[in-house]
Amino acid sequence: MANVIKYIINYCLRIILVIFRIFPIDNSKVILMSFGGKGLSDNPRYVAERLAKDYPQGKYIWLAKNMDEEYPEYITKVKIHSLRSMYELATAKVWYFNSRVNLYMIKRKGQTYIQTWHGGISVKKIGNAVNNSDFLATKRMQHDIAITDVMISSSGFGDKVYQKDFGFNKEILKHGYPRLDILFNATDEDKALYRKKIGIKEGAKVVFYAPTFRDDQRTDVYDLDYDAILKALESKWGGEWVFVTKFHPVMRNADNLIPGDPRVIDARGYDDTYEIMAVSDCLITDYSSVMFEMGMVHKPVFLYQKDYQDYCAGRGLYFTREELPFPNAQDNDKLIENIAAFDAEPYVVAVDKLFKEKIEDYDDGRASERTSRYIVDILQGK
Which of 216, 268, 358, 372 is the most buried (most CB within 10 A)? Predict the structure, then answer.
């Protein structure tokens, strides 16, 4: 019944959106959105920054849920689902989003919708590769793919996922992901600023814990022994270490998973995951695509997959743990053992082999530049 009500609401909103087509398309306007209304983050953030430099006369609209957050002066924030947002959607020349649009969002002739999917190089199966019983989620995926003109890809592997598991058969731009440019280009000054914003004490080394969600919302799989892991890292690489932990926003029961330890920073409220990655010295994750993004720049990645068999049998994976170059563990003792035994030289060789033979990565630190140029050409009618 709840899905039926949501469907009816979307139908009514679509009528309102269509009414705003009485206004002409503004050829200088780009509308951006991250994760359905989240703050300044992910690929849309970095494309907006680059567009402001490359095409300062453009108008850049950000659809947001929280209107109290501060935005740079080149961005106009607009409350998502408001009447103003309907006007902006109806009149923007380019849409640039990183997740599925709502069912009421339909573009008109003369508009271009660029989908820069947030998943990157996915480990867990997505799209049509997953049995999804959620009627609205399936309809949104089908609708989003139907109205998308162009998708941004970060790899040859991603191209195939878009085509096979999203059913996308239109243009794929091999630009790389703008959000990853920071991993190549962040300066020491940039990193010092990020550390201050995150709350990392001066001189401390950082282990980033970024697991993904579980469809059944189970939480026993996140039972890291934080104290023992920090001691293992200090023993392995020296210095003082802190955890920065960011649970997936879909998780509903994460409050009790953060220990009351000053060495563990809860970063759930920190929008930009890639600023955290830029200042992290190593990563612990399970099935998140961040493993590839940290591995890409040769930072140590450790997998903690307590529910590996269950996850494979349920959602499913594109890569088995045997195919990945990242040390994996199903309990804390093995994770600590993997940290102690880590050897950078064969690790780098194995990571490079994976990226060359199976992933075909497009990222080189210039993705924002390429995507911005593509959008500016659309705005200028080229």
Answer: 372
Nearest one of 214, 110, 228, 127 to 168, comparing CA atoms: 127
- Are 32 and 50 in contact by the 8 Å Cβ rule? The answer is no
- 3-state SS of the chain: helix, strand, coil percent to 5? 45, 15, 40
The enclosing H or E element of 301 equals: strand 301-304
pTM score above 0.90: yes
Q: Which residues contact 8 (CB under 8 A, 6 or more apart)?
A: none
Same domain, 233 and 336: yes
Write phi, then psi, for 247 (nearest 5 degrees): -80, 155
Listed residue (295, 214, 299, 293) closest to 257, CA to CA: 214
Say which DSSP state 180 is in. G
pLDDT category at 1 given cuts 50, 70, 90 is: low
CA distance 379 to 26: 9
Quick check: 172 and 178 in contact, CB under 8 A? no
Residue type, 253: N
Q: What angle do CA 316, 320, 321 make, to 5 degrees?
A: 125
Q: Which residue has the higher pLDDT, 218 or 253?
A: 218
* Cα separation, 227 vs 210, whole angstroms: 17
Is residue 204 domain-shared with residue 157, that is, in the same domain? no
Q: Return the closest-CA partner of residue 220 out of 186, 269, 254, 260.
A: 254
Q: Which two tokens stand for residue 192?
A: 């010092």
pLDDT tens digits, 192-214: 999 999 999 999 999 999 999 88
Check residue 57 and give left, alpha or beta (phi > 0: left; psi -120 to 50: alpha). alpha
- Domain total of the chain: 2
Per-residue pLDDT tens for 30-79?
999 999 999 999 999 999 999 999 999 999 999 999 999 999 999 999 99
Residue 213: domain span: 185-359
223 and 259 in one domain? yes
DSSP 204-239: -EEEEE-----TT---GGG---HHHHHHHHHHHH-S
Is 6 a member of any domain? no
